[in-house]
What we know:
The protein is of the alpha/beta class. It has one domain (2-148): Nucleotidyltransferase, domain 5 (2-Layer Sandwich). Helices cover 38% and strands 32% of the residues. The protein contains five helices and five strands.
Amino acid sequence: xxxxxxxxxxxxxxxxxxxxxxxxxxxxxxxxxxxxxxxxxxxxxxxxxxxxxxxxxxxxxxxxxxxxxxxxxxxxxxxxxxxxxxxxxxxxxxxxxxxxxxxxxxxxxxxxxxxxxxxxxxxxxxxxxxxxxxxxxxxxxxxxxxxxxxx
Length: 151
């Protein structure tokens, strides 16, 4: 399986408000050549958590064959869903949280699950705005997209 690094960040100018996401995919081919691609997008009325999810979704949806994906995010919302088993609990509880209320952003979580099928993955949380080069690049992409949508 090809090993891929997926770096992602989301941004929202207001919560809700105009928002954006930035994603970087990186892999090294069999000849040792590093390939990298950036993706970004936004929505005029969204939340930070939705954009954090969209960045990861976009990265997985760009993958054309099964990969081993190392996801790096500054979103505890996203990282803990996998690293602390939130997502599997939500699914087994009929998409309800521990408070018995429907989980927010169900459609995006389901879209992410579908995009991740066939891949191996791990999630790493990094502190945002702390000098992590790829996280800072993703943040710039995300805020650029959000700023484009400010009326």
